[in-house]
């Protein structure tokens, strides 16, 4: 594949990553403004090149998008890749961290 001027050449993995990240961003975009006090987070869980789970932050900020996606994927989440529109939460608050 040849690069156009100013455009990097993307390999298949990068193209796949972009596709799944766009899906996570689209999930979050549909919920914008409805998750206060938390940010709107979209998450897509992918295993073997296929989406096995999807989630988005619930109205009012709970549940988090990451936990929704993991629950949706069930056992298929183990060893899978999570595409998250915002960094996965990694702090202890009212609930354990999603990460």
CATH class: Alpha Beta
State the domain count: 1
Largest sheet: 3 strands, antiparallel
What is the structural class?
Answer: alpha+beta
Detail the poorly predicted runs: none
CATH third-level topology? Cytidine Deaminase, domain 2
Radius of gyration, Cα only, in angstroms? 15 Å
Strand content of the residues, in percent? 15-25%
Number of strands: 3
Number of helices: 2
Helix content: 25-40%
Order of helices and strands: HEEHE
Q: What's the average pLDDT? A: 89
Distance separating the two termini: 36 Å
How does this model look, in words?
The chain has 99 residues and is of the alpha+beta class. It has one domain (12-84): 3-Layer(aba) Sandwich (Cytidine Deaminase, domain 2), CATH 3.40.140.10. The protein is 27% helix and 17% strand. The protein is built from two helices and three strands, in the order αββαβ. It has helices at residues 12-29, 65-73, and strands at residues 42-47, 50-56, 81-84. Strands 2-1-3 form a three-stranded antiparallel sheet. A hairpin with a 2-residue loop joins β1 and β2. It is globular.
Provide the descriptors you would attach to this structure in a database record.
single chain; 99 residues; alpha+beta; three-stranded antiparallel beta sheet; 27% helix
Condensed summary:
The protein has 99 residues and is an alpha+beta fold. The protein is built from 2 helices and 3 strands; from the N terminus they run αββαβ.
